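I hope you will forgive my troubling you with a question about protein structure. I am sending you one protein, given as its amino acid sequence and as whole-number tokens for its backbone shapes. Thank you for your consideration; the sequence and its tokens are set out here:
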Amino acid sequence: MNENPNIRQQRKPSLWALSPLLVFLCLYLVVSLLVNDFYKVPITVAFVVSSVYALFITRGITPAERVTLFSQGASNKNIMLMLWIFILAGAFAQSAQAMGAVDATVNLTLHLLPDQLLLAGIFLAACFISTSVGTSVGTIVALTPVALGLAEKTGVDIPFMVAIVVGGAFFGDNLSFISDTTIASTQTLGCEMRDKFRVNSRIVMPAAIVVFLFYIIEGYRVQTPDSLQQVEWVKVIPYVIVLVTALMGVNVMLVLLLGIVSTGLLGMLEGGMDFFGWFGAMGQGISGMGELIIITLLAGGMLELIRYNGGIAYIIEKLTRHVNGKRGAELTIAALVSIANCCTANNTIAIITVGPIAKDITEKFHLDPRKSASLLDTFSCLVQGIIPYGAQMLMAAELASLSPLSIIRYLYYPFCMGIMALLCIFFRYPKRYS
């Protein structure tokens, strides 16, 4: 059967098109909160139910074409790139664990940082790495295993420690010059990245400082073990390679490949792991990413059906209808990209989706494009950082064997960043760009 040429065309704006997202949130988030058990409803089952529902309510094309459209959304190039990263991340994380790289890095961190600076140090490291590499996913992959080891050695709550890494990862995702979100927002609004950085840093830096000070205060409750193990310096090398190459701007997949190779070679040279043990660890790590890969594919397909049925078009139409004044215009831009991010689970795609509308609003109400670009980026990172089905949250939860919902309540930086961004809209700050 020939494919319907209209299968990729978006239909008229429709509120009903957003209902699969509501089904997912009610089934996963609301039920989990009601029964006070974040593991009661598997997130995979919630996505299967909402995906089947999305297929059922799609009209105008045959059932076979609905499945084709769903599959096209699941096989989107951004989704497939993310899956490759997940596969390599699983292989690296498990092989690093098997050869002792994680334990060695944890011991080194405990030797270098005083007790009271441990939490703040992890947050600062996540901020620095993510700003340098421009990717929150890469930062989470690199630091989450270390954070887990530190939590186990110091007795810090694991979801709390993982949330520190996730928060710091989004600091750099928002600010970095080489971040996809920075590139997308500045290109869409037509401003220079350095100018956007100046405005954006004034918006989010106060939030980062407040959270950093909070972690210092919380750090006084942390106690490292009385007797620390000796640092095995050779076993730290894989993490050094990963961090150094990432900071050099090397592609995240190549970074992970270098990490995988280094864990195997050093593990065999040290005698702690043989060739087949290395392969076994990689296989175990890749298999461990199975649920995450399934979730990502289901989310991509469901969100494509929402787009096709006019869900995102409905949001854009309704929010731009009654814009009034500069403050309202900035709030509209923030709301547009936030809701679009909820519907796409990808902050870069959300910016690209609503960017042209944001540009029109900016020109019509004489907003500063540098601030508009900053708001686009900031609110997309805020939502991406707190939705339980975002790639970053799923990755962190998978590496830590946690429910995404158990991490969300500790995400102090994303929430603080969002509050600060709203205050900047209401109080017209920075004044030079408002």
Remarks:
- The mean pLDDT is 84.
- The two ends are 55 Å apart (CA to CA).
- The chain has 21 helices and no strands.
